[in-house]
Design goal:
By secondary structure, this protein is α+β, with helices and mostly antiparallel strands. The chain has two domains: 70 residues, Orthogonal Bundle (434 Repressor (Amino-terminal Domain)), CATH 1.10.260.40; 60 residues, Cyanate lyase, C-terminal domain (Cyanate Lyase, Chain: A, domain 2), CATH 3.30.1160. It is 42% helix and 16% strand. A two-stranded antiparallel ribbon has the order 1-2. A hairpin with a 6-residue loop joins strand 1 and strand 2. The N and C termini lie far apart (54 Å). Keywords: Lyase.
């Protein structure tokens, strides 16, 4: 992958520095040194960019093959990631305060607060009584050009799970 000087590459590891083990800070450092986006890393290891970003924040679990591929493309010491976040490690999901203090994350939180009941009602009308899985869910982020200002398109593609009756 070639470095793209026209791309702004956020590589903040402020949250990851509070997450153990230190492998996550090393991932952010390697990402910054390479000058890559999450999308570029994801393409290099044949994964989705949101999953890769979640992994960097300690919110996703990679298997040993994925960790080796990641170490290889980022130029990290082979075996170091597996030693820290290999089969013995599991994510402690859900980071940050509630309500969130980061403006972008807060706006997502606000979206659920404002539209959550409406979304819930429509899901129930279309699917029945149940929930949308965040375990079996794919998230895509797209940029939509607009003359009034570019738009963010978030897609949550989650499996519907009906409540059981007994």
């Amino acid at each position: 992958m070639a470095y793209n000087a026209n791309v702004s590459i956020p590589c903040s590891n402020a949250l990851s520095s509070r997450i153990q083990p230190e492998a996550f800070s090393e991932l952010f450092g390697a990402k910054a040194r390479r000058g890559w986006t999450f999308e570029q890393i994801a393409q290099a290891i044949n994964k989705d960019e949101v999953w890769v970003a979640a992994l960097f924040y300690g919110q996703a679990k990679a298997n040993e093959d994925e960790l080796r591929a990641l170490a290889n493309v980022l130029g990290l010491t082979p075996g170091r990631l597996e030693g820290q976040v290999g089969p013995h490690w599991y994510p402690n999901r859900g980071i940050g305060p509630v309500p969130p203090t980061d403006p972008l994350i807060y706006r997502l939180f606000e979206g659920v607060l404002v539209y959550g009941h409406a979304i819930k009602a429509i899901i129930h009308e279309k699917f029945g009584d149940g929930i949308m899985s965040m375990i079996d869910c794919k998230i895509h982020i797209d940029k939509k050009e607009d003359p009034m200002g570019d738009r963010v398109v978030l897609t949550f593609d989650g499996k519907f799970l009906p409540y059981a009756k007994w």
